[in-house]
Amino acid sequence: MNILLINPPCRLPYMLPLGLGYIASIIRGEGHAVRILDINGFGYSDEKVEEIIKDSKFDIAGIGGLTSTYKYVKWLSRIIRKHKSNALIVAGNMVATTHPEILLKNSCVDIAVIDEGEITFKELVSALRAGKEFGGINGIYYKNNGEILKTPPRERISDLDTLPFPGWDLFPMETYLSNSTTSSSSAGLRQINVSAVRGCPYECIFCSRPFGKQVFIRSAKNIIDEVNELKKRYRVEFINFSDDLFLVKEKFVLEFCDMMISENLNIKWATSGRVNLINDKLLRKMRRAGCVELGFGFESGSQIALDNMKKRVTVKQAEEAIKMTRMARINIIGSFIFGMPGETMDTIKETLAFIKRNRLPIYRFFYATPYPGTELYEIAKRMGRLPKDEDRYIESLGEMRTTFLVNLTGFSDAELVRLKNEAELRARKNRNAKLWVDEFLENWHRRFVVMRVSVKNAGIIPTLKTIFRKTLNKLAPKKSPVA
Fold this sequence. Notes:
Blueprint: E1 2-7, H1 18-29, E2 33-38, H2 39-42, H3 46-55, E3 60-63, H4 70-83, E4 88-91, H5 94-97, H6 100-106, E5 111-113, H7 118-130, E6 140-144, E7 147-150, H8 173-177, E8 191-194, E9 197-198, E10 216-217, H9 220-234, E11 238-241, H10 250-263, E12 268-273, H11 280-288, E13 291-299, H12 303-309, H13 315-327, E14 331-338, H14 345-357, E15 366-367, H15 375-382, H16 390-396, H17 413-429, H18 433-450, H19 455-458, H20 460-475
Parallel strand pairs: 1-2, 1-3, 3-4, 4-5, 8-11, 11-12, 12-13, 13-14, 14-15
Antiparallel strand pairs: 5-6, 6-7, 9-10
């Protein structure tokens, strides 16, 4: 059969759509003809997309995407139906998983695949080829004579090593490899994203946990084999582990690091962490293995706010994590959420004070945004803060740093926007000369290590940092007010 897999425009333009890549490899392995229409990778216009769909031959169109692609997926499904009236239209990933009934009711999509799609999509293709009904396939919502039906949940893939590597050759790889906008740590390096872990055991109210609470992890050897293959095929120099929680199991991370060191791959990498899951030993090993950047979802500097979010961490843990990560010479990327339920002037002040005393380079906060599939979405419903028209609301979901949709606080809308803008300005102003020099020297030191300069030369940097800090301490004001 002819399969067209489609990657719609996304707010993460630098990320290779691994889900589609895995599905492509599996379906191609079954003997089907697979093509990927990477709208995001090529930056196609709507007119070009329609032209390609009109001229393409396919029996099934499989669309992946985040919730923020919902409006586009609705348009895309109409275009597919317009030109390919007999094609089966299947949607997966978060755009289908978190609100399948709304999607099927308001679009031309025939089937919504829930959670992991590799095995489900393979079974859908086999059923269509054999002329069988879809009711026997677990893990889907589907249309049947005007009704929307649901099948039992699909069992998770417990052995992730059984999955083939993504079908990289079907994507515009040079576009993704040369896009180093993920962070300054990957600037100028050929980078790509890799997935190692599925699932997250935590229950933050703003997160939809796309793979659920149960955690499954690829073997370290399987990941190393993929890194080796990427290096061989595409001269990859930097890996971004795009998992919700790469550091979920210390034993796995240490084993992976040991293999990276023993294989001497000379690959730099970044991943996400959690402030309660790191320690000095782990961070030092990660640095030796090539980790140069760690992302933390700090979300707030207020313990009250963190507890309201069900983060299950403390402000003290966050501060200790910052110190340990910097001692390991790993760059820190942090995120904060503004306007969660219970946000007050006090919690805002505590967050700004946290950013300042920990010298975090924060320029922008995310608006608290209720996404379907999250506890925050249900809280917003109970508060009466969501529009009655859920379809239109989901269409409006976009970039959380700039799009303000729902006010979950006691502030007025105008006041909340003003406070967020002022908080961002205050965070930027907190970057005084002393902090700037500290960050510059830390970055300078890290880059020297990355470039593999001698230990003798690298040792000069801490000395210079000490001299500069002592000098600036004499010049800097003793106190600086915090809003």
